[in-house]
Design a protein that fits this description.
TIM Barrel; binds zinc ion; three-stranded parallel sheet; 419 residues; 51% helix
Length: 419
């Protein structure tokens, strides 16, 4: 091209090519685009944030709404008085899909666990069958996208805790058949698959021999492997043995909460990204801020010692007093610090939102109390200069890409085994 041969007298007396000048100008303009966003008034940025939340697909990878409804019966197709999630507030916040968590308490045996799997599965189906003009099932990203285009709220299903699998690898086929799209290997106790980071008893130093089989079968079935709740050793081993990307559906960065194993340290974050996976940031204040973590642990310890829950009358009265002198909630700025941190060490393609709503109450950030709060997060991202393209990746693009890739890997494995 002619342009390549054109030269200009450089600013410093040297000859530079036009291409070099164009490159310099391009690089110089990039930060100024960012600065233009930063220069907008808060009001203008919030208007943009609201627009972005309404017109784009937002997916949250972890909301414990089915189990919540077991404890606090209500109808999520309407506004509910308790909990963090219902369709009305989701619409306000621009949320278009959430993974619907079948949560299995670690104390349950295999049979009771399976019974609960079926019962919570029926509860999720109740909404897609009773309100087909509001909710829809989704087995893969294309169905989520198609539901979004038809203004239907997607309710894909996931399983938090592999304990109901027992030692029966074929049960995974059953989970696939009922629509489970990701499985969290364990919860707060070490199980037959892997060690849990909430459990001091580390039986396997990571994955058990059966856990290795589970990883291989999840790969074959195209079900995502969720390493939230797993020990660091489990995470390293899952990354080593999985042939598909892995996800952390509701974990934040240990960098901000030193010693808190439930959050991910830098190296696993980088390794998850190297394998094209994604880290979905947990919104709970104890995940986001070390002071909140310390104080929440103190309050949880007291409630446990008294055998009361935070939502009982005594529990609520204790917390009301406790929060007068102890910080237990942070805000969206600290939440976005975690997003920033993951972007800084792993890149923009490996972060998303996994609120853990209905599972972290009452420690949601002060300005993101429930599913109506996503625009506040978008506002903060805009304020820091994130482009709309980058924000779309965080809101759903990254998670859907990984989900697609896991399904594709499953197809590949099945094709190879057919040959
Ligand atoms: Zn969890």
């Amino acid at each position: 091209m002619k342009l390549i041969n054109l030269t200009l007298q450089g600013l410093y007396g040297n000859k530079i090519s036009l291409w070099t000048l164009v490159s310099v100008l391009f690089v110089a303009l990039l930060p100024s685009c960012k600065n233009r966003l930063k220069e907008k008034s808060d009001e203008a940025l919030m208007k943009m944030a609201l627009e972005i939340s309404q017109k784009n697909l937002i997916i949250d990878s972890h909301i414990d709404w089915p189990e919540w409804l077991l404890n606090f019966p209500g109808d999520i197709s309407k506004r509910t008085q308790q909990g963090d999630f219902d369709l009305e507030r989701a619409n306000e916040g621009g949320l278009k899909a959430t993974m619907s968590v079948i949560y299995i308490n670690s104390e349950l045996g295999v049979d009771d666990g399976r019974e609960l799997v079926d019962s919570l599965r029926r509860l999720i189906s109740f909404y897609t069958e009773t309100y087909p003009d509001m909710f829809a099932a989704a087995l893969n990203p294309d169905e989520v996208r198609s539901n979004f285009s038809r203004q239907l709220f997607s309710l894909p299903v996931c399983l938090e805790n592999g304990s109901p699998i027992g030692e029966d690898i074929e049960y995974l086929e059953y989970l696939k058949d009922i629509g489970v799209v990701y499985i969290t290997l364990c919860h707060d106790e070490t199980n037959q698959i892997s060690d849990s980071n909430f459990d001091e008893y580390r039986q396997w130093n990571g994955l058990s021999p059966f856990g290795l089989e589970v990883i291989r079968e999840l790969n074959r079935l195209g079900i995502m492997i969720d390493i939230s709740h797993s020990t660091d050793s489990t995470v390293y081993q899952a990354l080593r043995y999985s042939s598909a990307p892995v996800v952390a559906t509701h974990s934040s960065c240990r960098h901000f909460t030193p010693g808190y194993e439930r959050n991910l340290p830098d190296t696993p974050i980088k390794l998850i990204a190297d394998k094209d996976g994604v880290i979905m940031v947990n919104f709970g204040s104890m995940f986001l801020d070390s002071v909140c973590l310390r104080n929440c642990n103190e309050a949880i310890g007291y409630l446990k010692s008294q055998k009361i829950t935070y939502y009982s009358q005594e529990g609520a009265a204790y917390l009301d007093e406790f929060v007068k002198s102890h910080k237990v909630v942070t805000d969206s700025k600290q939440l976005v610090n975690h997003i920033d941190y993951i972007v800084h060490i792993a890149g923009i393609d490996h972060v998303g939102l996994g609120s853990d709503f209905n599972g972290v109450g009452p420690t949601q950030p002060a300005d993101v109390r429930d599913v109506s709060g996503y625009p506040v997060i978008i506002f903060e991202l805009l304020r820091r200069g994130y482009s709309e393209d980058d924000i779309r990746k965080i809101l759903s693009g990254n998670f859907l890409r990984v989900w697609d890739k896991v399904i594709e890997k499953g197809r590949e494995i099945n094709k190879i085994s057919e040959i």
